[in-house]
Every structure is written in structure tokens, then in C-alpha cells.
UniProtKB/TrEMBL annotation:
Residues 4-153 form the NADPH-dependent FMN reductase-like domain. It holds the Pfam family FMN_red. SUPFAM superfamilies: Flavoproteins. Coiled coil: none annotated. The keyword Nucleus does not apply. This is Multimeric flavodoxin WrbA. It comes from the Bacteria. Keywords: Flavoprotein, FMN. One of its GO terms (molecular function) is oxidoreductase activity. It comes from Thermanaeromonas toyohensis ToBE.
Length: 204
């Protein structure tokens, strides 16, 4: 039994969030049968959805030609997801918001494409209580709009992983041992649910 977990870092720079996603994927790999893929929005050109309804009316992919075409292909191949964002003004980054808006064809063209795939949410803030909780909740809503099964971090992690970077990129995130435990616990739980769902699908 094998599953691939994709970790998506929604920061426009190499910093705390990419580090946290790598840590999460390392934890997920502790479960036998789990392989991982890292995806970052850093350096990617992704326009937000303009609401032109092209995908809805033509029943096809988005008409905007940018890096989202390739990212879409890669994203939908995975069996499970860890979605991470820096906290920007107490919310996910606009880059990640644009990414999820551009997954609209999943709703109008390929309904069910992500059905029975689990996902977990991770937020990385520069302030200890700078909006990680609300950011995780928004990421959960993003996943729900695309049909994913939302997985939480159980006791201690609850809604998802929450890290305090002290605005010090990787170094700050690495110092938050409590926050990183919420991330690792979430990642193992997403991996476990992905394996269970894959086994159930194989068993018919
Ligand atoms: C535009 C902007 C808005 C931010 N807003 C918040 C905020 O509301 N709360 C918070 O805790 N940190 C905030 N931060 C700090 C980042 O969340 C923090 O530095 C985070 O670690 C960045 O992740 P990265 O290093 O992966 O880019 C903000 C940073 C930027 C650039």
C-alpha cells in the first residue's frame, strides 16, 4: 500500500513555512508506504480567479495561462495534502488564496476529483498569537471547497499545525518545538488517514 502526500508551502519566499512543510513531510514519511512531494508557491505566477466563468460554461480548464496550469496537474495527482501558509494580516497569503481560487475547475469540470483525499492545515505566524488559529480555519475552508476530507491534529494540535516563527524564517520556526510537534502530529495523522482510505478503496 502506498500513498503520496503533497506538502504545499504558500509563502512567496524561502523561510519558515517551507522549513515547516519539510518537517511535516519528514514526519509523514515515518509511516510505511508513505512518499512525499514538496510544492512551493515561491516564484510562481498565479493570477487570482477573475470569475469569468470560462471553466463553468466551457467545462474545461482555466483560460488564464500562467504557472497554475502546471501546478494544477501536479496538485491533483497526490493522495493527501498538507497545506501550509504564513499568516499575512491574520489570514493565509494572497498567493495561496489565488491558488485555491484557481482550483475552481475541480468544482465545475471535475467534481469528485479530490473526493476521499484527506488534508491538514498549518499556519506559521511571526507573532505567538498572531492569527495562526484563524488562518488554519480559513485553510480548512479552502480544503472543504475543493472536496477534501479535513483531518485535525487530535489532542494538542486540534484544528491543525500552528507555529510561531518570531519573524526569523527557518531559525525562528525551528526554535518553536511545541508548534513543530503540532505539525508533526498532524502530518502523521494525515498519513494514517490516507493509508486507511487507500486500503478501503483497494478493498472495494
Ligand atoms: C504582509 C505580512 C503580513 C503579516 N501579518 C502577520 C500577522 O497578521 N500575524 C502574524 O503573526 N505574523 C504576520 N506576519 C509575519 C509572518 O507570518 C511571519 O514572518 C512568517 O514566519 C512568514 O513565513 P515565511 O518565513 O515562510 O515567509 C506578516 C508578514 C507579512 C510579510
Amino acid at each position: 500500500m502506498a500513498v503520496e502526500i503533497l506538502g504545499l508551502a504558500g509563502s512567496p519566499r524561502k523561510g519558515a513555512t517551507e522549513y515547516v512543510v519539510e518537517e511535516a513531510l519528514r514526519a509523514a514519511q515515518e509511516l510505511p508506504g508513505v512518499s512525499t512531494k514538496f510544492m512551493t508557491l515561491r516564484g510562481k505566477k498565479i493570477q487570482p480567479c477573475t470569475g469569468c466563468d470560462y471553466c463553468k460554461t466551457h467545462k474545461t480548464r482555466c483560460c488564464i495561462k500562467d504557472d497554475m496550469e502546471e501546478l494544477f496537474e501536479e496538485f491533483v495527482k497526490a493522495d493527501a495534502y498538507l497545506i501550509a501558509s504564513p499568516v499575512y494580516v491574520m489570514a493565509p497569503t494572497p498567493h495561496l488564496a489565488a491558488f485555491f481560487s484557481r482550483l475552481r475547475p475541480i468544482h465545475h469540470v471535475y467534481p469528485g476529483m479530490l473526493r476521499n483525499k484527506p488534508g491538514g492545515a498549518i499556519a506559521v505566524g511571526g507573532t505567538r498569537h498572531g492569527g495562526q488559529e484563524v488562518t488554519v480555519n480559513i485553510l480548512i475552508n479552502y480544503m472543504l471547497t475543493r472536496g477534501l476530507i479535513v483531518v485535525g491534529g487530535e489532542i494538542g494540535g486540534y484544528a491543525g499545525g500552528k507555529v510561531w516563527s518570531q519573524d526569523k524564517k527557518e531559525e525562528g520556526a525551528a526554535a518553536d518545538s511545541i508548534g513543530l510537534e503540532t505539525v508533526r502530529g498532524l502530518a502523521r495523522r494525515v498519513a494514517e488517514v490516507a493509508l486507511l482510505l487507500k486500503a478501503a478503496q483497494r478493498g472495494g
